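From the shared-data thread, chain only:
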Amino acid sequence: MIKKCLFPVAGYGTRFLPATKAMPKEMMPVVNKPLVQYGVEEAAEASMTKIAFVTGRNKRAIEDHFDVTYELEDQISGTSKERYLTSIRALIDQCTFSYTRQTSMKGLGHAILTGEVLVGNSPFGVILADDLCVGEDKSVMAQLLDVYEKYRCSVVAVEEVPLSEVHKYGVVAGDVGDDGVIFINDMVEKPDKGHAPTNLAIIGRYILTPDIFDILRNISPGKDGEVQITDALLQQARQEKVIACKFKGKRFDCGNVDGFVAGTNYFYQKMKHAES
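Structure, as tokens:
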């Protein structure tokens, strides 16, 4: 059973300036919970309760959020407002949290490599909090875990996107298995639509095997001098060690304003429906 889940949260969140000038983008509220809490809840639902954060400067609010706030809790103890802390208290009780810092921004691959000290030599999940996901019958990470349990190799979540948007993603191609998973044999980072092998885009959910760290250590930086996780996964795929899973559910790209507003509206309506 995979217990560890890595959260790369060191990015600057420039698309949300000035809101993110002093506040981590991962702490921006989607209705009444910060974005990152939804991701941790998803990991916990998949029984990944050892939560590891790769952080950066100005990210202390994330660490404080997943900790006890004695003064606040004492002030609202016994009042009707105490119920607002139920969900975060449950996570604090259920999970353990560890942190390391990425001192320079060199891409997602570098952020994951930075997290090696926290996850060690075992398979682990990766959640990018920008991608706010809602599974149909079970969480997206739990769906990936089912695939991993069957095939015991790295697994990535993919969804079909318009060809006009493939330049924003890592795009995969491969052979479709009887159970609908895709055995990846090609992968391109942010292609233009004329060179994309498919419209199947990798989104921010992964299960990675620990050999990924040696690949990341030795891989050459790609575009803009960044270490791309896509390049490392392609090396694994050449050894038939990466599977893509078309997850069942919804994804909101909360790394941009349109996706963030759509996600907020969805969860607001969900909350109002639960109250009615």
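The mean pLDDT is 92.
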